[in-house]
Write a structure and sequence with these properties.
The complex is a heterodimer. Chain A is α+β, with helices and mostly antiparallel strands. Chain A has 2 domains: 72 residues, Ubiquitin-like (UB roll) (Roll); 71 residues, DNA polymerase, domain 1, CATH 1.10.150. Helix content of chain A is 38%, strand content 13%. In chain A, strand 1 and strand 2 form a beta hairpin. Chain B is built from 19 helices and 32 strands. In chain B, helix 1 links the parallel strand 5 and strand 6. In chain B, 58% of the residues are buried. The chains are: A alpha+beta, B alpha+beta. The complex binds FE2/S2 (inorganic) cluster (2 copies). One FE2/S2 (inorganic) cluster binds next to loops of chain A.
Chain lengths: 156, 722
């Protein structure tokens, strides 16, 4: 049994320490919001926050996560400005990449409240979307950013 | 207002559940009666269900794979039902003839056809329910139905009477379904035609939407398969002792599709697969190489094929033309690579099989599963989950990912979910075919007089159960669509086809034949314009004089792009127009080359005429989506084979457009009262030629092969020798 902190809870999981976090979340904890897209760190569908920073859960093992706090899409509150902006801008199509996109955007805005287009490119270009929702992703990030700036909202 | 006869009226029935739901069901001859009062709550063949709690459930037989069909189809029902949109939810339909495509006769989502094929049927379903609710209220109030009207989920009667639908449900459910319904005048629409938020967005943003890959049940095993290394190879022998040592691996079974490693979860299954040792008899597939196939295709392109379209005498007209242009174009195999890798859950019992997966092809998959399981189709149930992208890959006449999952479940004797890795997906075949085209134009007296186009490639339909119905006189229409129906005015036209056979499995890929023909036709049309000394926009206008809808989008896109206005230094602009799936799309692309010689697409202006509109925001989204999908193919996409093996493995060797390569896209929906057309695929075809034309305008390099790589661009620049 290995202990793992996810979305504010501590779980004891019966997974081997070399199992990628992605499969611990999906197969052991049934937190299926985090998606498998490539398994090689190439698509971002599996993005989660580890101590607040975006990480590819397919490319980090349970042992490597250790005591750190994991936040998945399920752990980001529904009223988070990023989730709200995603709905307002109607970003989702098939929706499969969107948990990873949302988590990556949350991480970006945590670090940088007013990202430029260039900074959005840098932070988000590892998150593929085969449905091509990129234009709306960009718009939603700007919208969430200005809402957070105006409201002085701090979401951790 | 027009009176509409309810088609299939003899089959319409209604019933009430014990919980007071009104189900308007389409009775299906041949199926056990399903519409008794007690059963209707779960009656499989119904389009709309009103519950006593006020919710309205629209049961949609189309698969939601991003194209917004759940929302658009629910809007059609809700419009005629006049219910409160906030109370509408959607449920995926089971497999039943009631949900068969109104034209194709099978339960399928494809061909960008959901809105046009369902508009009438779902409008009638909503209108009939509304009419029954009105009659129920009128009877309760002892007034004439004509004295009543509806508004947002309530019936309003004389003297201020008002009753909500939910209070009328029980009474309405006892009434006969009307044989005639009155549909609204489109001018009275309050929902259809307005930008409307998607019903599936909240679950998708929350992370709670269930895709096939998310399905789990207690006791289920996850399987990862080792499939043949080359197409058509057969298994000789395998060793599974090392695989079985992986903690969590439960068993290994050989099935016709390959060797399945079954484990407690995906990770041990995948580790187990890595430890399998297998020997294969490669067969002729082991010798396949795409460069060699290309040579063969090119040779065939120089010979006459089976005629697909003919007008006048193109050959003779070319022979006497003052000027003849000849060019050869080619496009590679492409993988669909939906974001959600293929997967399928199967729970197989002695007399029943339950499948949960993201399918676009329910009837075919259900029947194929039954055959693989040794059951009758009615013993198989298929639950359609959300699809993490389809693009055609999840509508396979061979039902590959469903059949193999049934094989594995059968061998394992346990519920199983098969998951493909990305590598499995890219190497697994069912590609957009590779094509080679030879095309010629004759010009005399300053005008285009003849057009001859020879197409070489595999048929998607040949060899499937649809061949008899869909391949006519040796022509698979999906091989020549977009070319045989050339919209440009030319006196002499000949389009012919060589259908090639080889072991690489092919499949429809978002926009099917158009993904290839639009690139060839629209690129070559620019070559014709250049030979005529005409601006590409003006040349198209002249040749499309009698094609008002082509012209409409062409002019709209040109206006949007301010065609002819000066561009920043180092930028070029190109245009293309293409009709597909009953819709018309024109795009103007603005490009530059980066210091490494790679294309950057800065802006795309897109005009679409898809006839009557349900959800304009979805149309915009689908235009953006199609442009990105087509751009990935135009800039990067190619599946190649060497010694029978697919050379691409993952998104590093099969790149797709990322956010930093996303152009600014502007969309204009051309106003139209024509019948509705498709939107899911129609933005794909024009983008590759618009970009190739822009590149040529910028550099003079006419690149006639996709993808438009820096190497090809450099080789095609004027002054270079190749
Ligand atoms: S699944 Fe982790 S980056 Fe693609
Ligand atoms: S919404 Fe489908 S992959 Fe992004």
């Amino acid at each position: 049994m290995t202990s793992l902190k996810v979305n504010g809870e501590t779980y004891q999981v019966a997974a081997t320490p070399d199992m990628p976090l992605l499969w611990v979340l999906r197969d052991h904890l049934k937190l299926t919001g985090t998606k498998f897209g490539c398994g090689e760190g190439l698509c971002g569908a599996c993005t989660v926050l580890i101590d607040g920073a975006a990480e590819r859960s397919c490319s980090i093992t349970l042992a490597e996560v250790g005591e750190r706090q994991v936040t998945t899409i399920e752990g980001i509150p529904a009223n988070h400005p990023v989730k709200q902006a995603w709905l307002a801008e109607e970003v989702s199509q098939c929706g499969y990449c969107q948990p990873g996109q949302v988590v990556a955007a949350v991480a970006l805005l945590k670090q940088n409240r007013l990202p430029s287009d260039e900074q959005i490119n840098q932070a988000m270009s590892g998150n593929l979307c085969r449905c091509g929702t990129y234009q709306r992703i960009r718009k939603a990030i700007h919208a969430a950013s200005s809402k957070m700036a105006k409201g002085g909202i701090i979401h951790e | 207002m027009s009176d509409q006869q309810v088609s299939r009226r003899d089959f319409l029935k209604s019933s009430a559940t014990l919980t007071g739901a009104l189900v308007l069901a389409c009775y299906v001859p041949g199926l056990a009666p399903c519409c008794s009062a007690a059963e209707a709550g779960f009656a499989p063949n119904a389009f709309v269900r009103l519950s006593a709690d006020g919710s309205v459930t629209v049961i949609v037989g189309k698969s939601e794979m991003g194209q917004g069909t759940f929302t658009a189809l629910a809007m059609l029902v809700a419009e005629e039902l006049d219910c409160d949109w906030d109370r509408v939810r959607v449920e995926a339909a089971p497999v039943a003839p009631a949900y068969n495509h109104t034209t194709f006769g099978l339960q399928v989502t494809g061909g960008s056809s959901s809105v046009w094929s369902e508009w009438q049927r779902l409008s009638e379903a909503g209108a009939a329910a509304r009419q029954m609710l009105v009659l129920a209220a009128a009877q309760a109030w002892q007034v004439q139905p004509e004295q009543c009207r509806t508004e947002r989920g309530s019936v309003l009667g004389p003297a201020g009477r008002r009753s909500s639908y939910q209070d009328l449900v029980e009474r309405a459910a006892r009434l006969p379904v009307p044989t005639k319904v009155r549909l609204k005048d489109p001018r009275d629409y309050r929902l259809v035609g307005r930008p409307t938020h998607r019903l599936d967005s909240p679950a998708k943003v929350a992370g709670s939407a269930v895709f096939g890959i998310d399905v789990h049940t207690p006791g289920m095993l996850v399987a990862v398969l080792m499939r043949p290394p080359v197409f058509g190879a057969t298994l000789k022998d395998f060793q599974d002792s090392k695989a079985l040592q992986v903690p969590g691996v439960r068993r290994v079974v050989a099935v016709p599709a390959g060797i399945a490693v079954l484990a407690d979860g995906f990770w041990p299954a995948k580790l187990g697969r890595e430890r399998l040792q297998a020997t294969w008899d490669l067969g002729p597939g082991g010798a396949l190489s795409t460069p060699r196939m290309r040579e063969e295709y090119a040779g065939r392109a120089a010979t006459p094929g089976t005629v697909a379209a003919k007008r006048g005498t193109a050959g003779a007209a070319l022979a006497r033309a003052e000027k003849v242009l000849r060019a050869e174009y080619e496009v590679p195999y492409l993988a669909h690579a939906p974001m959600e890798p293929l997967n399928c859950f199967v729970d197989l019992k002695a007399d029943h099989c339950h499948i949960r997966t993201g399918s676009q092809f329910q009837t075919v998959d259900r029947d194929a599963a039954a055959k693989a399981a040794g059951l009758r189709p009615e013993q198989v149930t298929l639950e359609t989950t959300f699809l993490g992208g389809g693009f055609g890959r999840r509508a396979n006449p061979a039902s590959d990912f469903v059949v193999e999952a049934v094989q594995v479940a059968k061998a394992a004797g346990q519920p199983v979910k098969v998951i493909w890795t990305r590598e499995d997906d890219l190497k697994g075949g069912y590609y957009r075919p590779m094509w080679y085209d030879r095309i010629s134009a004759g010009i005399s007296g300053g005008r285009l007089t003849s057009w001859q186009h020879t197409i070489v490639g595999q048929s998607i339909i040949a060899g499937t159960s649809f061949e008899a119905a869909l391949v006519k006189d040796g022509i698979d229409d999906t091989s020549v669509e977009g070319a045989a129906d050339l919209p440009y005015a030319v006196d002499h036209l000949l389009v012919d086809l060589h259908t090639m056979k080889n072991p690489v499995p092919t499949l429809w890929w978002r926009s099917v034949g158009h993904s290839h023909t639009a690139f060839v036709v629209e690129s070559f049309l620019d070559e014709v314009a250049a030979a005529l000394g005409k601006d590409p926009l003006i040349c198209r206008r002249e040749l499309l004089k009698n094609k008002p809808r082509h012209l409409g989008v062409l002019n709209a896109a040109a206006r949007l792009a301010d065609w002819g206005s000066p561009l920043p230094a180092g930028h070029g602009r190109g245009i293309a127009v293409h009709a597909s799936f009953k819709s018309y799309v024109a795009q103007v692309a603005e490009v530059s080359l980066d210091p490494a010689g790679a294309l950057r697409v800065h802006r795309v202006f897109c005009a679409v005429d898809c006839g009557s509109v349900v959800n304009p925001d979805t149309i915009r989204a689908q235009m953006e989506s199609g442009i990105v999908f087509g751009l990935s193919a135009a800039l990067y996409g190619a599946i190649t084979l060497k010694d029978g093996r697919v050379e691409q493995t993952n998104f590093d060797s099969y790149p797709v457009v990322r956010l930093d390569a996303m152009p600014k896209v502007e969309v204009e929906i051309v106003k139209s009262t024509e019948k509705p057309g498709g939107i899911g695929e129609t933005a794909v075809p024009p983008i590759a030629p618009a970009v190739a034309n822009a590149l040529c305008a910028l550099t003079g390099a006419r690149v006639r092969a996709l993808p438009l790589t820096p190497e090809r661009i450099a080789a095609a620049r004027p002054g270079r020798t190749t």
